[in-house]
């Protein structure tokens, strides 16, 4: 078999392994999925009228349209936290040491985690999106091309954050530390433009929300789903995603190839 065939075979085996783990132990995924759903319902039904009034006097439906793209990005960030925990478990429980002694492609272990996490992120986004539609979210102004671009953007964000989460899991001494290390992937969307526009934030806080990866990604997704202007956020979001993907890939690869102590 060629090197490419071996890589594909071993990566698909590792992918099946990770998907089986997710199916057998769904509690972590469900707990991470529950957070964006609760936040969506909280901000729509409890804070929706107040927030929409503060953003220009719109109604609750207008705020649903505003907040859903941010919640979808938060869903991706929350889902990949489970990847960091899963990778840390593999590192600390000895299975990685076993894989090192087997005649398999070394990169397939990481590739299996990454592809499995991206698939879980997309599935989580679909489920949260279904809840959003059920409570009134509509995207009537988006074209088919914009819908495809929106799904492509979310997949690219999921890929970038997954590689970062894999690196966090590789360097964590245990699952609890991995969960704590990956916490910024949940916190950063909270201090972005997910819930309120950046322009409404205090001047000293605005740069924190503006110059981080989630804000341009959220603004791009919001523009694609609602059919509004994206401006410079599109290329900023893609640049952030590509940069984080490259950083996470080489970080994870270096940590994986490091000789165990």
Structural summary, described in words:
This protein has 261 residues and is an all-alpha fold. The protein is 77% helix and 0% strand. It has helices spanning 3-24, 27-45, 48-54, 60-92, 95-100, 107-134, 144-171, 175-181, 184-190, 206-210, 214-226, 233-257. Helix 7 (144-171) packs antiparallel against helix 11. The radius of gyration is 19 Å and the shape is elongated. The mean pLDDT is 84.
Secondary structure blueprint with pairings:
Blueprint: H1 3-24, H2 27-45, H3 48-54, H4 60-92, H5 95-100, H6 107-134, H7 144-171, H8 175-181, H9 184-190, H10 206-210, H11 214-226, H12 233-257
Keywords:
261 residues, mainly alpha, 12 helices, 77% helix, elongated
Our Rg estimate from Cα atoms comes to 19 Å
Number of strands: 0
Q: Which regions are unreliable across 5 or more consecutive residues at pLDDT < 50? A: none
Intertermini distance: 33 Å
Number of helices: 12
Multimeric state: single chain
What percentage of the residues does DSSP assign to strands (E)? under 5%
Largest sheet: none
Short description:
The protein has 261 residues and is an all-alpha fold.
């Amino acid at each position: 078999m060629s090197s490419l065939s071996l890589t594909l075979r071993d990566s698909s085996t590792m992918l099946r392994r990770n998907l089986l783990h997710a199916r057998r132990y769904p509690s972590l995924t469900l707990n991470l999925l529950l957070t964006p759903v609760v936040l969506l319902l909280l901000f729509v039904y409890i804070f929706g009228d107040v927030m929409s009034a503060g953003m220009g006097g719109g109604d609750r439906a207008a705020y649903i349209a505003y907040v859903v793209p941010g919640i979808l990005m938060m869903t991706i960030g929350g889902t990949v936290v489970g990847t960091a925990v899963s990778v840390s478990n593999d590192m600390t429980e000895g299975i990685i040491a076993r894989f090192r002694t087997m005649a398999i492609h070394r990169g397939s272990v990481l590739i299996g985690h990454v592809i499995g996490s991206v698939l879980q992120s997309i599935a989580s986004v679909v489920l949260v999106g279904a809840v959003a539609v059920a409570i009134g979210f509509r995207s009537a102004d988006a074209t088919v091309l914009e819908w495809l671009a929106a799904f492509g953007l979310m997949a690219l964000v999921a890929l970038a954050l997954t590689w970062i989460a894999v690196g966090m899991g590789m360097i964590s001494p245990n699952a609890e530390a991995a969960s704590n290390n990956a916490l910024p992937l949940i916190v950063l969307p909270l201090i972005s433009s997910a819930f309120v526009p950046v322009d409404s934030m205090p001047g000293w806080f605005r740069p924190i929300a503006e110059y981080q990866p989630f804000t341009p990604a959220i603004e791009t997704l919001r523009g694609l789903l609602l059919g509004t202007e994206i401006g410079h956020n599109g290329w900023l979001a893609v640049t952030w995603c590509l940069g984080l993907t490259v950083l996470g890939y080489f970080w994870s690869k270096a940590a994986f190839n490091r000789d165990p102590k």
